[in-house]
Design goal:
single chain, about 150 residues, alpha+beta, Arc Repressor Mutant, subunit A, three-stranded antiparallel sheet, about 55% helix, HTH_HxlR
């Protein structure tokens, strides 16, 4: 965005550049400008006066990058529906896979233990555990590891 903004207008002062690139905080803009200057894409010119000022502009190398970045920006403006649909499909698949893997892990954990319930004479309220099974909430549950008892 910084390269595109500088390419459109020539040189810009820091505050003008920050206003042009919406949503960027001063620290991030400063770091970006330093990196671009280090890479030889942006030149920094200090101006004496009251108040002293600094102006940034693209170097010759930076101007060669402006057109490809502008084309990328135009592509993004033309294809937002496809990008959003791809994101939704990806996120949906990730959620489904995540839930399935958690259920498999929980099922394996419950397969390796044996729950023993104490019989009660009064009715018990039912509680649902994380895998959707129900068991009496007033029942005393004793967990026995299958590896210790040899039972399943």
């Amino acid at each position: 965005m910084v390269v595109i903004a500088l390419g459109r207008s020539g040189g810009l002062r820091f505050r003008d550049l920050r206003a042009t690139v919406e949503g960027i905080i001063a620290k991030v803009l400063t770091e970006t400008l330093r990196d671009l200057e280090r890479d030889g894409l942006v030149a920094r010119h200090e101006h004496a006066g009251m108040p002293p000022g600094v102006e940034y502009e693209l170097t010759e190398l930076g101007r060669t990058l402006h057109l490809p970045l502008q084309a990328l920006g135009l592509w993004a403006e033309e294809h937002p529906a496809q990008v959003l649909a791809a994101r939704e499909a990806y996120d949906s698949a990730r959620r489904r896979t995540s839930v399935e893997s958690r259920l498999r892990a929980t099922t394996c954990r419950f397969d390796s233990i044996r729950l023993v319930e104490r019989r009660t004479t009064r009715p018990c309220a039912l509680t649902t555990n994380e895998v959707g099974s129900t068991f009496p909430s007033t029942a005393r549950i004793r967990v026995l590891r299958a590896s210790r008892t040899g039972e399943r």
